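B., you asked whether I could sanity-check this one before it goes into the benchmark set. Here's the sequence:
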Amino acid sequence: MPDRQSVMWSRITGEPVKMGSLYVTERNARFQYTPDFVASGLPGFSLVYPPRIYAERPVVYRQPGMLHPRIQALIPPAGAQNFQRKMLLGILRARGQTPAPGIDEDWALLMLAGHGGIGHIDVFADDDEARSWYADMQPAPLMPVSDSLGSTLRDLMTWLDVDTANLLRTLGPTPTVGGAIPKMLLSIPATGWNGEISTPRKGNDPGRIDIVLKFEPSHAYPGMTEIESLAYTMHAEAGFDVPRHWRCRIGGMPAIAIERFDRDANGLPLPLESCFAVLAAGAADINTHIDGSYERIARAIDTPSLQLVGNRREAKQHLFRRVVMALLTGNGDLHLGNLSIRGWGEGAHFSPVYDPTPMRAYSRHNMLCPIPFGDYGDYHRGGRHITGLGEALINFAHNLGLQQQKAWQYVSGLLQLTADYPERIDALETLPGEHKERLKAIARKMHTALSSFVAS
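And here's what the prediction gave me:
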């Protein structure tokens, strides 16, 4: 394949600044910071690659045909059912571009949508393109959500190869986020959802906020937005930081608008990096969001040579509570991509909760947990028995450095909070009965299992 080169910029301070250059060859991908950026004291493109350590030495990622994981996160994943990728490929086709699958396609998508996305890094083909993009900081006008937008999205959600012209005329090539559930990055009035949308902010506009707009594919996940809203409410009641959100309908489709937390009040970007990107940067065996374990996250947090978070102990407590809450609410999808770190240095911490949807309500996602913890389901070290859930939580707490008494205090508090969860599921209006019954049964089973173990 031909060698490729691009540049990375950031507007984390409000003024665009060049971060460095990216080079991709058949053998590896290399990123090199500029001397001015190294001297600036600003955060690098990944928590794993701080400028203070790398300075002007190349940051090399030795996976042929792959980009550094934090950069790869700017591209919607490949897959026949990825809404965002299909939409962006439609834009490329409209421009006469049909790159070959693989690194050619990923690179073309990166050049198209590698700026304005989640986090504080923006990738461009060259410096002139970066300066041109940043020069237009005026916000696009807000416009009411139209039926034409809704019908176009409904067509796209059937995963057919349809004309995206309607959508492009409405919003332009708006940046997207990864995942199979259709999502778009937009802005709305700061007062909240009122049916008006625009492209994401590029400059200071306190009259707006940036959102992720998620559409419910009702044919596959009926009632999804309603149970996601309930999950946000439950996590907020448990003391977790959660974003504001609004349920809505667009062109007859259920949707949920979620305030972005990778932007400050003035619209300036904040560093946000998934645990997958963090672990995959330094471990050859982390290739998907369900590789590794929750303990691997804790070990990365404790790495002496890296500062992933400001307070390591609080971060591991948060991780333990998040896992327990996922078990009790029937999440089943708390993978490495759904846990992120926001900020940098002493101010870095786990991000607010996102994607907490109780996906176990749907039979295709009815699994206890997407990644291992505490040797759950494995033979005990002596080979005498299989490690059960309660024992796994003890192991998990120990591996995080939590005292068992403190861990059970966390579990007891979350058990009390979720005691009426089945009744709250029953009160949902759009989740079909079969999914309600499945989720209620799961919730009761988890509650009984953890209650009996804490009591013992």
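One thing to flag: The CA atoms of residues 152 and 166 lie 7 Å apart. Otherwise nothing jumped out at me.
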